[in-house]
Amino acid sequence: MEKLFIAGGKPLRGTVQISGAKNSAVAVVPAAILAETTVVLDNLPQISDVGILTEILTELGATVEQNADQLVIHTEAMKSKPMPDGNVKKLRASYYLMGALLGKFGEATIGLPGGCNFEPRPIDQHIKGFEALGAEVKNEHGAIHIRAKELRGAKIYLDVVSVGATINIMLAATKAKGVTLIENAAKEPEIIDVATLLNAMGAKIKGAGTETIRIEGVSSLQGCRHTVIPDRIQAGTYMIAAAATRGDVVVDNVIPKHLEAVTAKLQEMGVHIYEMDESIRVVGQPEYQSVDVKALVYPGFATDLQSPMTTLMTQAKGVSILTDYVYNNRFQHIPELARMGAKIKVEGRSAVIEGSPLKAAKVKAADLRAGAALFIAGLCCSSDMVTELTGVEYIDRGYENLVTNLRNLGADIWRQSN
Ligand code: EPZ
Question: 272-276 — which CB contacts under 8 Å span 24+ positions?
């Protein structure tokens, strides 16, 4: 098992290149299945989730060439194949295979998703969409079985604003006969990214990024080339780490508009932020004001940044409140932060955070973003003790080259297997 060791007390200084977005990559790789010919994807993050999806596409008959952050996916020989277990169980985003295979072959059998398990993560809205498009969906023996003689466009209202359901329904609807309307759709930038790829393949999608998406089905989709957008959650994590260590960091290759909410909150705390066209400079300050944060759907403050933000809020004077309106209980990092001296009370979907110094300890990451909260906590402890962090496999799912990037910024962090 691998561990991360972090000797804190060193301000992060320098520039970090942000990779392509994980939450785009895990959707655009399955989306490539829909193309009859070769798809080239650039700026993919080199993380374990992308590796697993590449293996899955190969199991389905694709030939995939990987050159650093590029995948060349030859789809001509792909065949429909049930995947009730195996690799599909290793990540939650394997559910995108349902929409892609349903759109391409009219059928899909996919084992129920795995991945981050901070709370039950239902897919009822995905299933509601597939059934509205004319598919028969069964949940048997731990797998979702989907069949459709013919996919027909439909009007689908999402009861919950769901990133996954919005993208999954969009994937299947590209090949449905007629027009599909997704109402109460999620508006995350990753949804626009997937729609951009699909339209480059010949799909007819309008309104991605708004609450109503219109998809006019087409009979076939062709290969294309697409560059994945930068990872706003990875960028936000480094911005928060720079503020927490009172450093001076430029996050490069970002879309500042995608980071508006975290930029605004950091400024409210007293962090100095300078926005350029494709980069943001974060200059930490000796003292921070307490702030209240509400994690909401986009363009609100991202729920994926609430865990790292909790760590920073322990460094502010006074009491802060963080409320997550997307998930009911995404607080697995809080007992671990408490082991480091954090004074946080969880009340329902809110965490009440009292400013307090953090001390090194042995802690465990239970999910990807909890891991981010904990490595940032290790970085902002005083340097005479070393924080030991397990659960590194979660962190590797979403943060490409984390140790190298942090060491290049001056952090004293290393990995050790034992
Ligand atoms: C995506 O998950 C992201 N994952 C998550 O990031 C992110 O936290 C989440 O969106 C919210 O922004 C990927 O993109 C791979 P949802 P997703 O469907 O699509 C409920 C990370 O750390 N819901 O938008 O699974 C659900 O329980 C990961 O990178 C239903 O009730 O999230 C949640 O409360 C973690 N029924 C809310 O909606 C459904 O059918 C939002 O979930 C689907 C969702």
Answer: 273/239
